[in-house]
Design brief:
There is one protein chain. The protein is mainly β. Helices cover about 5% and strands about 40% of the residues. The strands form 7 sheets. It has a 6-stranded mixed beta sheet, with no helix packed on it. A 5-stranded antiparallel beta sheet has the order 4-3-2-6-8, with no helix packed on it. A hairpin with a 2-residue loop joins β3 and β4 (about 45-50). The radius of gyration is 23 Å and the shape is globular. The two termini are about 35 Å apart. Its main location: secreted. Its EC number is 1.10.3.2. This is laccase. It catalyses: 4 hydroquinone + O2 = 4 benzosemiquinone + 2 H2O. It comes from Lithospermum erythrorhizon (Purple gromwell).
Length: about 450
């Protein structure tokens, strides 16, 4: 069964009173989530989208604002979908962070089409810790399937295999000139010679780390995940799925057209991936409209040196308004390995188990694959003291120590096999917890966003 909803989502935020006598303002956004049929790659595909666009609208706030978001879900029913009616209200403060974040769906694979940028600017009276750019432009890298994305993940789950590879990547919702039937809709950014543009980057691809370049231009990286960094000049950025970055680009080249382009960074030779290249165009005012855009030379897919050089040069700007040193001392320490694991086939037909060596593929943390209850959520069980929903024995470290990144262990059945469970780790309120996440090379290298809800 596919699950869709037409949701009327009202987002409003209230400006917090400053020390001055300024009055609070209320700004309301209305977001409508529903089915949308759009043309990509020479065919029409129905997706779930927000406000009739891909990506969805950019939400803009200032540091110190308070969000009030109300969601009204409208019932929708037809021969293949079922939705529900409900109302939600959320209130949260936008404090002590500035830069680019993003909002996205959390149901199944709907994050592939339900997403958009969330931009947090400095509050009134405070400036960026770098010269203010002439213009700010959201640049969102996405991943596109020509089929229903919910079917994609459901079909994979049904046979215990990884989901089908995407058919394209996108920049601001468009694949670009290198794909069939896409050149007429390629995203274009008009620039004026001599001006500086802040590209507010979001990698909304589901699984892929991406390289990003602009032909003949350098970029200055100044922020990552809404935290200021020491400015770093580069020709190539490496951005992980779920990650955001702010980069400054100066239009300092001869009048003309230049491609911005992205490609996958995949440091393993054992993994299949979508190796296509999305593009968008930077077009200078005054340039001839018939000019063929210049294409950047992208790194090889396995260019570890370029990725390592960029990532190891990202350092916190300690003079930024909200910088804080790493908390010390630490009360609790966890080492959590993450990666692909397997279950033995437990289905009547071995053909229903199309994972590694006819097994069922699963993700795991410290060799435990999360298996939630269908009766009650963990938080409800905790607050109402309901037994049998979860256990409190999530381990502080993996059960077996091994060379986590060695490809020699990729198909080691003793290490790959995992167990199901709903295990939690309880902490004392206000304690300081250090978590080290260690990726593994088991099965395949997995690139996936990680975040703590509510933090």
């Amino acid at each position: 069964m596919r699950l869709y909803s037409s949701i009327l989502l009202h987002l409003c935020y209230f400006l917090v009173l400053a020390s001055s006598l300024a009055s609070a303002a209320v700004v309301e956004h209305t977001l409508e989530v529903k089915n949308l049929t759009i043309g990509r790659l020479c065919q029409q595909t129905t997706i779930t989208a927000v406000n009739g666009s891909l990506p969805g609208p950019t939400l803009r706030v200032k540091e110190g604002d308070t969000y009030c978001s109300s969601s009204q879900q409208i019932s929708l029913r037809n021969n293949y979908s079922l939705a529900w009616r409900n109302n939600y209200t959320y209130n949260f403060d936008i404090t002590r962070q500035e830069g680019t974040l993003w909002w996205h769906a959390h149901i199944s694979y709907l994050r592939a089409t339900v997403y958009g940028a969330l931009i947090i600017r400095p509050r009134k009276g405070r400036s960026y810790p770098f010269p203010k750019p002439d213009k700010e432009v959201p640049i969102l890298i996405g991943e596109w399937w020509s089929a229903d994305v919910v079917d994609i993940i459901n079909d994979a789950t049904a046979v215990g295999a990884p989901p089908n590879l995407s058919d394209a990547y996108t920049i601001n919702g468009q694949p670009g000139d290198l794909y069939n039937c896409s050149s007429d809709s390629t995203y274009k950014l008009k620039v004026q010679e001599g001006k500086t543009y802040m590209l507010r980057m979001v990698n909304a691809a589901l699984q892929s780390i991406m390289f990003f370049k602009v032909a003949n231009h350098t970029m200055i990286e100044v922020s990552i995940d809404a935290c200021y960094t020491n400015p770093y000049t580069t020709h190539t950025i490496t951005i992980a799925p779920g990650q955001t970055m702010d980069v400054l680009l100066k239009a300092d080249q001869p009048l003309g057209s230049y491609y911005m382009a992205a490609s996958v960074y995949q440091g393993s030779d054992f993994v299949t991936f979508d190796d296509t290249t999305p593009t968008a165009i930077i077009e200078y005012d005054g340039a001839a409209t018939t000019t063929t855009p210049i294409m950047p030379v992208l790194p090889d897919f396995s260019d570890n040196e370029t990725a390592h050089r960029f990532l190891t040069n990202l350092t916190a700007l300690t003079s930024a308004p909200f910088w804080e040193p790493v908390p010390q001392p630490v009360d609790e320490r966890l080492l959590i390995t993450i990666g692909i694991s397997i279950f033995p086939c437990d289905r009547p037909d071995i053909n229903q188990c199309q994972g590694i060596n006819n097994t069922i593929v699963a993700a795991s943390m410290n060799n435990i694959s999360f298996n939630p209850s269908t009766n009650l959520s963990i938080l409800e069980a905790y607050y109402y003291n309901v037994d049998g929903i979860y256990t409190t024995d999530f381990p502080d470290e993996p059960p077996i120590q091994f060379d986590y990144t060695s490809p020699d262990n990729q198909l080691n059945g003793a290490l790959l096999t995992t167990s199901r469970g709903a295990k939690v780790r309880k902490f004392k309120y206000n304690s300081t917890v250090e978590i080290v996440f260690q990726n593994t090379a088991l099965g395949t290298i997995e690139n996936h966003p990680i975040h703590l809800h509510g933090y």
